[in-house]
Amino acid sequence: MRPILQLAALASAGLACTLPASAETFRWSSATDPQTMDPHAVNAAPVTSFLNNVYEGLVRRNAEMAIEPSLATGWAPLEGEHGWRFTLREGVTFHDGAAFTADDVLFSYERAASEESDVRSWFAPVTGVRVVDDLTIDFVTSAPNPLFPDSIANFLVMDRGWTEANEAVRPARDAENAATRDANGTGPFRLVSRDPGIETRLAPFDGWWDDAEHNVTEAIYTPIGNAATGLAALLSGEIDMISPIPLQDVAQVEGREGFQVLEGLETRVIMLGFGHDREVLKYGADAGAPNPFLDARVRRAVALAVDVDTIGRVIMRGKSAPASQLLPAGLSGYSEANDAPVGFDEAGARALLAEAGYEDGFSFGLMCTNDRYINDEAVCRAIASMLARVGIDAELTVMPVRTYWEELRADNFDMYLLGWSPGTFDAEHPIRFLAATPNEETRVGSWNFGGYSDPRVDELLPLIQQELDPAARQAMLDEVAAILQAQVAYVPLYVEPLIWAAKADIDLVQRPDNFFMLRWVRVN
Amino acid sequence: MIPFVARRLVQSLFVMLAVAALAFALFRFVGDPVSQMTGVETAPEDMERLRVELGLTDPVPVQFARFVGDLVTLDFGYSYRTRQPVGAMIAERIPATLELGFVALLISLVVGVPGGVYAALKPRSPATQALLIGTLIGVSVPTFVIGILLIFLFGVQLGWLPTFGRGSTVEIGPWRTSLLTVDGWRALILPAITLGLYQLTLTLRLVRAEMMEVMRTDHIRFALARGLPLTSIHYRHALGNTLVPVVTIVALQFGGVIAFSIVTESVFQWPGLGLLFLESIRFVDIPVMAVYLVLIGFVFVAINLLVDLLYAAIDPRIRVTGAA
Question: Which of A145, A314, B204, B225 is most buried, judged by most C-beta within 10 A?
């Protein structure tokens, strides 16, 4: 602590009665308050991340993102039919003291798969759930599903008794119910008080089945929407940890004694998408002219013209990593065989454009968010000027994310910026959502705004989903990765960094999914 | 008098209807609430079902009629974001904003009125110059910059005051106040200064101008000629006459203080109406935005109506012109 701060701390000690009373009170903050305490009502990161401290799933992810036993001690494929059998942990209790049994899992499945739930897509492959005995439960699926246990890591289990007694059997659709503001999980922390948008207090659950690694006696969460205010709150010592902090503030935190910056890579790849199913351009001076992006050479020229390293160095301050695929290196199913990024080659881009008949360039519309990804607007401006250097003129439209998806769904773009974080942390996820031909019935391709379509990719996707042999599965994933690269379906740019800041005496784990788990926090 | 009041009431109703129409029109452009309410993995058909449930697929006139109908019957519905009843959410946040606005106004008066008197009486003193320049800077620099500067100076560097939030609060019935705790007052100082700075400048300059004007009038000259004590002339005769327009302006400005506390509340994470409104915009939480906008509109209309009626009561000429 610097002398001036020390003096100030002494001076304010007399006045301040709310500064951390005991060393183990841990206060943290982020920009967005979880909208609800209901684990099945909204499938959004702020909610799921927060509730993973209170509720638990059958499986959970460890610090390295690998799946490990949680409420289930083991799982194995069913014999004679498709699906999985989970053996449940004995002696687990909910925060209200009720015992955890297979019936609670069945109930939670019914709740999470109901029409009112926002997480029901996780259970699309499930055809039935069977309670075998109090500590055994079967999930039957329509086809072999090797990744099912991984895909339900965030399926959080509620207590049937508590939920029924409090009339929260289904997630709140209109008016709030008991589960919106209150919680009763099996997790390491229990909800003590909840003041939406202002403050949420948690305390360790004494009856937790696992050995506590943390030494927190009380955890207080406060949302702080304004980044500068959040940073000030950390530097003044009012909070112990904040996520994220803006890139430009990293130096300021690092320069102060007593504080640390935690840097890592998130699992989100930032990429450019094209209107693959569009005959004509919609924006720019050439609106109405034939769509040049139908030609793979033009798409490759775009990939060559964008200098990802410079964007990483200048705009992302050296904290991002170049991407070659729709998911970051190191995740399951990542194709090592297709690891090389396209690289930056202005002359090559010009040559390809000339070959495609666009030596005089063309003008088109690029859509971009300004509040969704780190420095997204600056990245788009850089991309537009890089494309201008090879003669193609991107007319940039930036908008907040609250209007962005609506515009993309209405096909209002020629090219767009997209970030994708695979919810299952597996290569199948981006293929299902971004590369498969959009299909209402099979519910694939729901984020494939440009309508990219390749018969071989569509053919491989179900096979990948069902393949039990890891080598055969990887071979198919490699093939898809190669197709997407050869056709430049998307232009993967870089992997977004993850920047948290904390007091130096706090030990914590920064998981690449940007979840903040209190169970690893140690206040020294 | 009665026809005048009736006419003003009807006019106010039309203004409120216009506010509601504007607010409603705005919602067409703020974005898609359903995208905000669902996760990335939600199937398009589930989103569509939610859209139908929320009535977002109904024809626009039907939606508008329902919107006005709900407002008139005080049925504010539920927040898209938190699922709480909107009326309760707004009611919970009102005390924070009112207390902040009230203290900000108090600061602006306590500093602005004496400051203005001083500046009028001693126009050439260096302190006056400093005061005028200082307050000019105060209005020219954007509120959020002032807020951040104050936070970094008093919160981070000196560590005297909290950087965010409202401190400890005490609940008196439905009213949650931070005015009864030391902690609450400490948290209130910086945001109240930030919010009150503009009012302070306005009040100071208004008092100064009015005071200089009044000091030149005949009755003050007579008073001076009669040899009345200077303090009595300045503070009883001159200031008394100065305060009439000042009170009017300050009252009218109070609506503005409430409405424009958005920036201050955001910078200090002050859990009031403005912060709630900002969060609601981000999530396209239309029910909350609607009630907030209409409430702010109502505050302005009510204050203006009140001032009009008071004027009419005081000054019969307004009534006569109004009736003509």
Answer: B204
